[in-house]
Specification:
The chain is an alpha/beta fold and about 220 residues long. The chain contains six helices and eight strands; from the N terminus they run βββαβααβαββαβα. About 35% of the residues lie in helices and about 20% in strands.
Length: about 220
């Protein structure tokens, strides 16, 4: 369903991205933000899933500025490798690459952002800083609590797992306290519960989170 394309950020840097097109005219655009494992098989499958729902989907290669073409799995050596690369990224550069994906979706209709793990934090950051989007959803973004001084400019939904060892419930409660009207859903699941290629995958939680996410985007991407 998908293909690899090039995106050029406003600073002139070019990165790769995965693009998945819907079967008919798109009802909107969706920027899919990766975990710390690159635009791997799972993230491509997520983009495909949104395309199947009628969205033109783009997953930008947010590691390309540091190390192009990274695709990691979910084994013991992949987590430290992904964390090492992520630590070398710069938020402003990453948001510039997300902006490039948003601009590439121009003409697709209203645009949303959905992100997972590191991408969940970036979804929050995008809601605060990236123009051209109308709504965002973040899954288990561990860095969100450190960004609570920045206010989202578009509607936002967040998903967390109560068994997550990377994002404490204390941090989740801080987010809830900062934005009491924001939907913050908590599931009886671990970090990465959406990913069916990880041992922490929880189908019932993933299915419920997806239903809530799709309903949210249907309401706001008009």
């Amino acid at each position: 369903m998908g293909e690899t394309i090039k995106l050029t950020a406003k600073d002139g840097v070019t990165i790769t991205a995965y693009r998945a097109a819907p079967a008919a005219a798109p009802k909107g655009g969706m920027v899919v933000l990766q975990e710390i494992f690159g635009v791997n098989h799972h993230i491509r499958s997520v983009a495909d899933r949104y395309a199947a729902q009628g969205y033109a989907a783009i997953a930008p290669g947010l590691f390309d500025r540091v190390e192009p073409g990274i695709e990691l799995g979910y084994g013991p050596s992949d987590v430290p490798k992904g964390a090492e690369i992520r630590a070398k990224t710069k938020l402003d550069d990453t948001l510039a690459d997300i902006d490039a994906a948003v601009r590439a979706l121009a003409g697709s209709g209203p645009i949303g952002v959905v992100g997972y793990c590191w991408g969940g934090t970036l979804a929050y950051a995008s809601a605060c800083r990236v123009g051209g989007i109308k709504a965002a959803v973040g899954y288990y973004g561990g860095g969100i609590v450190a960004m609570l001084g920045e206010t989202p400019k578009v509607p936002l939904v967040l998903h967390f797992g109560e068994k997550d060892q990377h994002v404490s419930m204390g941090d989740v409660n801080k987010i809830k306290d900062a934005y009491p009207s924001m939907p913050v859903h908590v599931y009886a699941a671990d970090h990465g519960f959406n990913c069916d290629e990880r041992g922490s995958y929880d189908k019932s939680s993933a299915d419920l989170a997806l239903r809530r996410t799709l309903d949210f985007f249907t309401a706001h991407l008009r």
